[in-house]
Amino acid sequence: MFRLQISGCLSFYVSFCYLLLLALAESLHPTEVNALKAVKKSLIDPLKHLESWKNGDPCQSNWTGVVCYDTVGTDGFFHVRELLLLNMNLSGNLAPQLGQLSQLRILDFMWNDLDGSIPKEIGSISPLKLLLLNGNRLSGSLPDELGYLSNLNRFQVDQNELSGPIPKSYGSLSFVRHLHFNNNSLSGQIPLELSKLSTLLHLLLDNNKLSGHLPPQFSILPELRILQLDNNNFNGSEIPSTYGNFSKLVKLSLRNCSLYGVIPDLSSIETLLYLDLSQNNLIGPIPSKLSDNMTTIVLSDNHLNGSIPGSFSNIPFLQTMSLQNNFFTGSIPANIWKNMSFGTTSRLTLDLRNNSLSNITGELNPPHNVTLRLGGNPICSRANIPNIAQFCGAEGDGNIERLMSSRPTCPVQGCPINDFFEYVPESPVECFCASPLRIGYRLKSPSFSYFPPYIIGFEKYMTDALDLDISQIYIDSYFWEKGPRLRMHLKLFPSWNVTHSNTFNSTEVQRIRHIFTSWNFHRTDFYGPYELLSFTLLGPYSQMNFGTQSKGISKGVWAAIILGVLACTVALFSIPTLVILRRQARYYRNLSRKRLSTKISMKVDGVKFFTFREMAGATDNFNISAQVGRGGYGRVYRGILADNSVVAIKRAEEGSLQGQKEFLTEIKLLSRLHHRNLVSLVGYCDEEEEQMLVYEFMPNGTLRDWLSGVEISQLKLKEH
Predict the structure, then answer these.
(1) What are the pLDDT digits (tens) for 9-30?
(2) How does DSSP classify residue 607?
């Protein structure tokens, strides 16, 4: 009997090993497994997002951010198709072994805190289509080898610390459509080889240290829509006359580039919507004719002269015309605004300050949605012009906020806000409470300067691409940043009419996320290129993971068998362990309650206590894109609370944490400080081993910024 049992067990384990080998036969290629392990080893993962990268096979065990092909390759192995590690607070370096992911199509490390150089080995991944490394601290030069990526469509390394020249080899990127190299320290001349990129749509090189001359050959790029070179030093260079030959250009931005000469004839570019040539040394008159579709004309801070063309009255969609700090003479044509058709959300800003304008053609009675600025012109001394004084002040108008939609009157306690649920603002079902997906989103180079007239169109564009109803999207907030770039926080809500649920299921979340991360939106030149800043999963979505999940019945069967065998093996040893763990859990739960009760007792009159969950929700889980500063105490984030108020959240780092008594004493002290030049303390958080102070937000920067002149326009003095 004993021998029969031994024989049975031996047979069982032989079968088990056979099944195990079959299961392993359809796994990730060993070289790529080792490459992923090397990637993890080179990274610092303080929030343990990559905790799953140590168990099982990457393609079968749902490793965070690892997406594999659905079928095995000709070599009998699976291969990694996408590596999506967007906004995970990762630091450390990019491992050279990334080049061993030979079948990779998307490499996404956006919005982390990586430093070091870009590995040249990435240039060997020939199928790569999206290389997304923007929003880190990568340094060093751009590797020549990345010019070998013949299938590359989108190349984003903006907002890093890269230096050195742009390699000439990048002229061989025969399928590239987006080159985003802005906000680095790249130097040298722009390679003429880039004019070979016949598929290029967007070339963003602004905020670097580029020099030399503007390449006249760019005008032959047949598909170029956006050319943005602001804040470089093309000292002595003129704007090539060939730039009037662009066939499809939508936006031309050459602000603060030390350019000389005259503005070329741009009248034949019928697609042009946005022109910014400000803060240069341009001379001569304004071109008498521009596209009838212009939204923005910015020519301020030059040496331009002559009169303001009357033809500008035939631009019906004009939002901004900025001509201040030049030498314009003659009259102001009042028909610029009189011949325009304004909607309820339209606005026109005409900034003509500090010129030599002495009269006005027509009556000076612009409608309420026209802002006219005339300070510093001789016309302001004309007492015979009625109401002239109101247009001659130095101050401009304030920020115009979007009017939020009116929400129905719903019971305050009917929606568990602390669990990240809220009433859907535009839902056709009254007082429908649901949990949204929170998305940080930014238009990097839009072709307009004022958003409200286009909000509904933008929402329609977004929901069409996402296959959602327009009632499911809500722009929670938006604001302009330097660039100018338009940043917004979006909320996407489930629809009761479609899902009959107040949450998205995991399949739908993954589908929506895939559209954002793979850039599957229909291209629009008007809104320009976008960037995904965050895709935050809170509340009911917090446990979702988007690595590859097992596909195919056979793999499921093998996994079930293996798990069953392992379960039987450890069953006898599990019961004592479970008993011990259960007692420990009860102990720590009671301990947590005691700590929580202690924190609750810390409340200070006039200062609000915030939970850690509220702070995470306000900052998109402490998204690096929400960070506005950093000091010895820790990082400072811009946050939006549940009541839509904007605050600054000061989060202590581990070395700055105080004892509970000391922290409470500091809060009491700060709560008593009140002065018009001091920001007020709104509240604090002391939970989950975190200490945070919540202040009123200063939207116009710090005192240090103002004293250093960062936000102060450079006005040119004129000789009279």
Answers:
(1) 445 444 444 444 444 445 899 9
(2) B
Neighbouring CB atoms inside 10 A of 608's CB total: 14
- Contact call for residues 186 and 164 (beta carbons, < 8 A): yes
Q: Strands 80-84, 106-108: parallel, antiparallel or unpaired by DSSP?
A: parallel
pLDDT band at 304 (very low <50, low <70, confident <90, very high): very high
Measured CA to CA, the distance from residue 424 to residue 414 in angstroms comes to 12
Residues in CB range of 189: below 8 A, 6 or more apart: 165, 210, 211, 212, 213
Is residue 445 helix, strand or coil?
coil
Give the sheet arrangement for strand 185-188, strand by strand.
139-140, 161-164, 185-188, 209-210
Residue range 585-603, pLDDT digits in tens: 454 444 444 444 344 445 5
Q: How far is CA 445 from the centre of its chain?
A: 12
Residue range 438-484, pLDDT digits in tens: 999 999 999 999 999 999 999 999 999 999 999 999 999 999 999 89
Q: What is the pLDDT of residues 309-364, one digit of tens each?
A: 888 888 888 999 999 999 999 999 888 887 666 677 889 999 999 999 999 888 88
- Contact status, residue 268 vs residue 246, Cβ threshold 8 Å: no
Rounded CA-CA distance 192/213 in Å is: 10
Q: Which residues contact 61 (CB under 8 A, 6 or more apart)?
A: 52, 55, 547
Task: Read off the pTM.
Answer: 0.77
Among 146, 105, 139, which Cα is nearest to 122's?
146
**Can you state the angle between helices 506-517 and 455-466, rounded to 10 degrees?**
120
